[in-house]
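Feature request disguised as a bug: please show the residue count (183) next to Acetyltransferase (GNAT) domain-containing protein in the output. Example input:
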Amino acid sequence: MSIEIEVLNGEHSRPQAETLFQQIEPHDAQRREKGNENEPGWAHITWADPDLRVMVDDPDSGLVCHAGIFFRTVTWNGQKVHVGGVGQVATHPGHRRRGYASIALEAAVQTMRHHDAAQFAVLFCESHNFAFYQSRGWHPFTGTVYAEQPAGKIRFEAMAPFVLDLKRRAPTLGTLDMCGLPW
Ligand SMILES: CC(C)(COP(=O)(O)OP(=O)(O)OC[C@H]1O[C@@H](n2cnc3c(N)ncnc32)[C@H](O)[C@@H]1OP(=O)(O)O)[C@@H](O)C(=O)NCCC(=O)NCCS
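Example output, currently without the count:
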């Protein structure tokens, strides 16, 4: 079976991505609102919009998987550093466990590696996805994360941070200020 993988401008491709999210949303609604015994849920969080999007299309079904790509100057222990990021990784429930998210993540990582300024990459995920990212080279960031929300800066704990080495080894400790909305 042939699939098509594209990396598109985030804003222009937003309507297409939102159609996929609407199909996925009912499956995730309870977790998003309530979290679980270890996680607070994340319905209250305002998220950043991706700069780029990896879109995986199946010839029969259209868009089946999406990964957002982000670039931003953040601070780590008070020092400015330009990073890449991945977020909004999602596969249509009827097309999971076929490797689509792995393909989208790999395309996102390749895109960040080609972006010369990005020193390391950051993502946030729920505990049921830790193994997925760890087996693909991402490490937990065990320091403190701050991010902006409409009401001001917060300590960001709604999801766990993971980092990936790009141009330099990613830090796993310290204070990471996202200097903007989380992704
Ligand atoms: C998490 C999510 C994106 C994974 O999408 P996916 O397309 O099913 O992911 P993949 O198929 O690449 O990988 C999922 C698992 O299926 C396995 N898999 C891949 N191809 C397979 C195949 N042909 N047959 C059986 N298993 C397969 C993978 O090995 C992987 O398991 P592993 O992590 O133990 O290696 C998807 O479940 C989802 O959209 N969840 C809801 C939203 C969400 O939680 N997003 C993450 C935000 S950070």
